[in-house]
Design goal:
about 475 residues; alpha/beta; 21-stranded mixed sheet; 6 helices; about 25% helix; extended
Length: about 475
């Protein structure tokens, strides 16, 4: 008998070569003993071994023992019921809520999301008895936000009011929407506790503050401030932006933007200061960034740095000596962001402590009210004051709850940014096209100054400082972390 084990110890093969003269007959006991001598202790196929002996299956290696292949658990998956069926992500796809195009109107009580739960994995083993551990699926995390709630069974998130669906990093809310043709001097300042959708332009010296802002045209020297995402179909020119989510714009000129998460620009960024928590990218293959400061917590992807040649010739006379604008590109979690993270943690903790104090006061008031005689008129004013105080405490407690949850969710989002920063080794910059002399690239507060024109370079951090490599080599590993907007 010849016994062979596969390299991964998942199978044992038996090859019977009968002797010319049979001294001892082949039995199942002899086969099992031979297998055990080769450290095969489980997964025996006794019926097949008996068949080999009975039908004299010789001179052919056949499987007589097999291990169990581990079955890995499946990840949880959200079924986005508010989207038309043909637009819903497939179960096999990875769903990033913030990448989905959502301006979907829903009604009160409508089912928005059903989450398919992750499954537990089943461990396997080798024929030698070694356990092969299976990984369990990862639960998909999505929580109800404003104007949404779980159904009584906890299986679906449903709309608590009529409105427009808004998706956050791990939450879904329903917001009211305010449509406007334009925002100009006749309007001035717009503040709305919901979505502001401007079909046209936002003029100079105007401001818009909302949960989310959608602009169909362009924005001038105005101010945009949002809790969530901002999308501008055309350009930002001289705009000041404070975005609590992600920003998507056609182009930026002389703009100052502070963005919590991702920034996506279709065409170009010119003489602007852009600071974003996670990633920054310019999508067009002929797009560019020129002048100013571009800073991201983790990754930056640009097509080119510096003005295209045709734009240079337009911007200078024949006798004028051109001085190219300097562009500073920087990745890495800034000290300011780390300070903000610690501040969020402190604020959330303070809100929870304040909530506990409110609950203690409410409990004491309830006990006092229970002691009063509801039939005694003299206690009526006393009870009225206590009930009024109770209402004030309840309102205060609700505010502390909302504040704590808001800060905790922001902190969780910052946790994800910090985790990506570890994965990317402190951040990386990808420039697939031209990089002019004088460009400055900072990674983890180390500086690299481009001394001569170059192209197609990735900048990352190593023990010896910033190193450069071909974009194609490194970008394929990090492409999945960039924000992809579905249209």
């Amino acid at each position: 008998m010849q016994i062979e084990l596969s390299d991964d110890q998942s199978k044992a093969y038996l090859n019977v070569i009968p002797p010319k003269e049979i001294i001892e007959p082949l039995t199942i006991e002899r086969v099992l003993a031979a297998l055990r001598e080769e450290n095969v202790f489980q997964g025996f196929d006794r019926e097949f071994i008996e068949k080999i002996i009975k039908e004299r299956i010789f001179f052919e290696p056949v499987v007589v023992a097999s291990g169990k292949t581990p079955v890995h658990g499946k990840n949880g998956h959200p079924e986005l019921l508010f989207l038309p069926e043909k637009f819903r992500p497939s179960k096999e796809s990875s769903v990033n809520l913030r990448e989905l195009p959502v301006m979907q109107k829903v009604t009160e009580g409508q089912e928005l999301v059903r989450v398919e739960q992750a499954t537990v994995g089943e461990d396997g083993y080798t024929i030698t008895g070694r356990l092969i551990t299976a990984s369990s699926g990862k639960q998909y995390r999505i929580r109800p936000g404003r104007n949404t709630r779980f159904n009584p069974e906890g299986t679906h998130i449903i709309a608590a009011s009529e409105g427009i669906v808004c998706l956050g990093n791990d939450s879904i809310s329903v917001e009211q929407i305010k449509y406007m043709d334009k925002v100009d001097g006749s309007v001035g300042r717009v503040r709305f506790d919901g979505i502001v959708s401007v079909r046209g332009n936002i003029s100079d010296r105007c401001s818009v503050e909302a949960v989310r802002i959608e602009v169909g045209g362009s924005v001038g020297k105005a101010s945009l401030r949002s809790i969530g995402d901002i999308r501008v179909a055309q350009g930002l020119k001289g705009t000041v932006v404070q975005c609590g989510g992600s920003l998507h714009a056609g182009n930026m000129v002389d703009t100052q933007a502070s963005i919590f998460d991702h920034a996506v620009v279709d065409e170009f960024i010119l003489n602007s200061k852009v600071f974003c928590g996670s990633t920054l990218q310019v999508n067009a293959t002929d797009g560019y960034a020129c002048g100013g400061v571009l800073q991201a917590g983790n990754l930056i992807r640009l097509s080119n740095v510096g003005l295209p040649e045709e734009k240079k010739s337009k911007n200078k006379s024949s006798n004028e000596q051109e001085i190219p604008p300097q562009t500073l590109i920087e990745v890495g979690i800034s000290l300011k962001n780390r300070k903000q993270f610690n501040e969020l943690e402190k604020r959330a903790r303070d809100s929870l402590y304040a909530l506990q104090d409110d609950l203690n006061e409410i409990t004491a008031l309830m006990k006092d009210l229970e002691k009063t005689d509801w039939n005694e008129e003299r206690d009526e004013d006393y009870r009225a004051n206590k009930i009024r105080t109770l209402g004030e405490l309840e309102e205060k407690a609700n505010k502390n709850v909302m504040s704590a949850f808001s800060d905790l969710r922001k902190r969780e989002a910052q946790d994800e940014i910090n985790e990506l920063n570890k994965i990317t080794g402190g951040g990386a910059v990808f420039i697939t096209g031209r990089i002019p002399e004088g460009t400055s690239v900072n990674v983890r507060r180390s500086r690299y100054i481009v001394r001569s024109n170059m192209a197609d370079k990735a900048f990352s951090f190593s023990e010896n400082g910033i190193q450069t490599s071909s974009c194609s080599e490194l970008l394929k590993d990090f492409q999945k972390y960039f924000f992809e907007i579905m249209v």
